[in-house]
């Protein structure tokens, strides 16, 4: 097991001690201790229906928007939630799908907008569709207007301190995960991304200079099969991409523009069997002070990582609560073998 999973998965009482999970995160999100404590409201989803403007008690949207303060959301049983509009999350919200099967699909899907201290764990999010401008219930029970939504599984907009762990994401209209518009202190770990063209975007657009402060950790994830590009694509900011397993790509695996800093460390890259692109990297524009290099990565089936720049720079400089040991790439297959939603029994260890 990797360092995150070792922290909680061996506990046979995880079902009654769910908040232990918040102390297990590493990377730029740090520990999620602001999500736990005696003042946490424990909320259970019992109703899979969705009303975007008048959420009913028992629904997921009610839990993410109508409850003040810290909320830890679990689910009574397995369910599929078809969102009628994007689902917004309030600050200090944890969504915990362990122990059952929760599918989220429909319009949106998850929008983490101008909030902080968010945990998203154990969800299957897929077949998310675009949405024209609309209104929807937002944080603190306030109806807010939304612009065009492209159809991403999870979209972060001006969000801070977010941990996205052990989810399975696939087949959405646009991308699977976007981190944009000044979002920072994000950890993306133990997820399974598959069957998607554009997988992960870090940085809104080339002109959005606030994303220069973006810091994202991408660790222990499984990319593939059938992923094309953006694993991730980085603009302006900093990404530490470590101990991930790449099961092929068509255009590229890791890319960027606007002089980001990217440290690719101890990942396991397996290029596709076909005569597609074996090169891991893609760069838009060579100008600027790029730091984009590989340390300890393993390349199989002809995979290559060319034009390294800024070698030795782009260190994450984690603080004590963020820091973790990157293991050798030879162990990555094992460390990522249970990426995505875990099969947890309510009475046994995960």
Radius of gyration: 19 Å
Low-confidence sequence ranges? none
Please provide the count of β strands.
Answer: 30
Tell me the name of the CATH homologous superfamily.
Single-stranded right-handed beta-helix, Pectin lyase-like
Q: Which class do the helix and strand fractions yield?
A: mainly beta
Number of domains: 1
The helix fraction, in percent, is under 10%
Beta-strand portion reads 35-45%
Summarize the structure in words.
By secondary structure, this protein is mostly beta strands. It has a single domain (3-10, 17-335), classed as Pectate Lyase C-like, CATH 2.160.20. The protein has helices at residues 3-8, 60-65, 332-335, and strands spanning 41-45, 71-75, 79-83, 87-88, 93-96, 102-107, 110-113, 116-121, 124-129, 134-138, 142-146, 154-157, 160-165, 168-170, 175-180, 184-189, 192-194, 196-202, 215-219, 222-223, 227-229, 233-235, 238-242, 245-247, 254-257, 261-265, 268-270, 281-284, 291-295, 298-300. It has a ten-stranded parallel sheet with strand order 1-2-5-8-13-16-19-23-26-29. Helix 2 links the parallel strand 1 and strand 2. The longest helix has 6 residues, at 3-8. Keywords: Calcium, Lyase, Metal-binding, Signal. Residues 78-275 form the Pectate lyase domain. InterPro entries: AmbAllergen (IPR018082), Pec_lyase (IPR002022), Pectin_lyas_fold (IPR012334), Pectin_lyase_fold/virulence (IPR011050), PEL (IPR045032).
Record the SSE blueprint.
Blueprint: H1 3-8, E1 41-45, H2 60-65, E2 71-75, E3 79-83, E4 87-88, E5 93-96, E6 102-107, E7 110-113, E8 116-121, E9 124-129, E10 134-138, E11 142-146, E12 154-157, E13 160-165, E14 168-170, E15 175-180, E16 184-189, E17 192-194, E18 196-202, E19 215-219, E20 222-223, E21 227-229, E22 233-235, E23 238-242, E24 245-247, E25 254-257, E26 261-265, E27 268-270, E28 281-284, E29 291-295, E30 298-300, H3 332-335
Parallel strand pairs: 1-2, 2-5, 3-6, 4-7, 5-8, 6-9, 7-12, 8-13, 9-14, 12-15, 13-16, 14-17, 15-18, 16-19, 17-20, 18-21, 18-22, 19-23, 20-24, 22-25, 23-26, 24-27, 25-28, 26-29, 27-30
Antiparallel strand pairs: 10-11
Enzyme class: lyase
Domain Pectate lyase: 78-275
Keywords: Calcium, Lyase, Metal-binding, Signal
